[in-house]
Amino acid sequence: MQIMQDLAKNKKWITYGIFFIVIPAVTALGIFVFKDRKYAFITLVITVLSCIPLMMTFEKRVNNTRKLIIIAVMTALSVVGRFLFALVPGFKPVTAIVVLTAVFFGGEAGFLTGALSAVLSNFMFGQGPWTPFQMLAWGMIGLLAGLLSKRLRKSRILLAVYGIFAGVAFSMIMDIWTVVWYDNSFQPALYIAALISSLPYTLMYAVSNVVFLLAMIGPIGKKLERIRTKYGLQ
Fold this sequence. Notes:
This protein is mainly alpha-helical. The longest helix has 32 residues, at 2-33. It is built from eleven helices and no strands. Helices cover 84% and strands 0% of the residues. α2 (39-56) runs parallel beside α6 (131-147) and α3 runs antiparallel to α4 (94-105).
């Protein structure tokens, strides 16, 4: 029993290490060291790293398949949703779908859904050095939603507040890439300017997150909760 508990603790720390240290470090390495020339390789590395923590949580073969199917379906919905709202800048259901996945199936599933949503949808919107930052942004939003899942499931007010936070956080992470792309270095003054200039987009994105979250938590949330309870998925 003690061995299993120690193993579970080690898995948790490995998961946190990959999400909070390794993936951000790989993203920074691709931008600041390789100067955007290896973004395809960095994107592949982040995708693989995103899968590792989820695979480590698998214990039963049946649940493995079921959880992978759920993640695949939610990722597909996210990608399709981004396509459908392509003509409305900043108004996308991607974050809402990533958050709902994390709230009902855990932060690992949320991170993987966010990361895959970015890289797969960009086959249509265009791959580039911005892709790793989008993967990181949506992935971290999903991961944090998973850590707060119990509270977010109980309160729609907190869910709406998280939607606003997610919109701001996404813009803040993406503006790091904007500054680096513009100046080939990170200048705090330029970063602040980028944040200010992107306020309309950030506001639109935050509002869209709230709209989609509150619209989806009822019909989609109930189905996800039923699946989670029926099959014991965490």
